[in-house]
Amino acid sequence: MIKFVLFIGLCFVLGGLAVASNPSPYYGVVGLVVASIAGCGWLVGLGVSFMSLVLVIVYLGGMLVVFVYSVSLAADPY
């Protein structure tokens, strides 16, 4: 179980680095998804499964809105 929690923690950190290092919103959102899933997996590993489910629903919903907004701004030529 310790190895699982450490692996999920490493995925969380790598997802955060992917968000910080990618200027493109298309690749940045992949890092956000990896980080959010890893964070929720970390919470499941610690035994807080309901909070993990709520975090996935709220965080991924908010992230989808921000991603669509940033893509629409990037596609606008003016």
TrEMBL record:
GO cellular component terms, alphabetically, are:
mitochondrial membrane
Recorded catalytic activity of this chain's protein: a ubiquinone + NADH + 5 H(+)(in) = a ubiquinol + NAD(+) + 4 H(+)(out)
Its top-level enzyme class, in one word, is: translocase
Q: What is its EC number?
A: 7.1.1.2
Its membrane topology: Multi-pass membrane protein
| Keyword Acyltransferase recorded | no
Just give the chief location class: mitochondrion
Identify the stretch annotated as signal peptide in this record: 1-20
Keywords associated with the record: Electron transport, Membrane, Mitochondrion, NAD, Respiratory chain, Signal, Translocase, Transmembrane, Transmembrane helix, Transport, Ubiquinone
Citing just one GO molecular function, the answer is: NADH dehydrogenase (ubiquinone) activity
Q: Which InterPro entries match?
A: ComplexI_Subunit6 (IPR050269), NADH_UbQ/plastoQ_OxRdtase_su6 (IPR001457), Nuo/plastoQ_OxRdtase_6_NuoJ (IPR042106)
Mark the transmembrane ranges: 30-48, 53-75
Give the location in the cell: Mitochondrion membrane
The protein's job, in short, is: Core subunit of the mitochondrial membrane respiratory chain NADH dehydrogenase (Complex I) that is believed to belong to the minimal assembly required for catalysis. Complex I functions in the transfer of electrons from NADH to the respiratory chain. The immediate electron acceptor for the enzyme is believed to be ubiquinone.
The family annotation for this protein states: Belongs to the complex I subunit 6 family.
Its protein name is NADH-ubiquinone oxidoreductase chain 6
Q: Which organism is it from?
A: Oxylabes madagascariensis (white-throated Oxylabes)
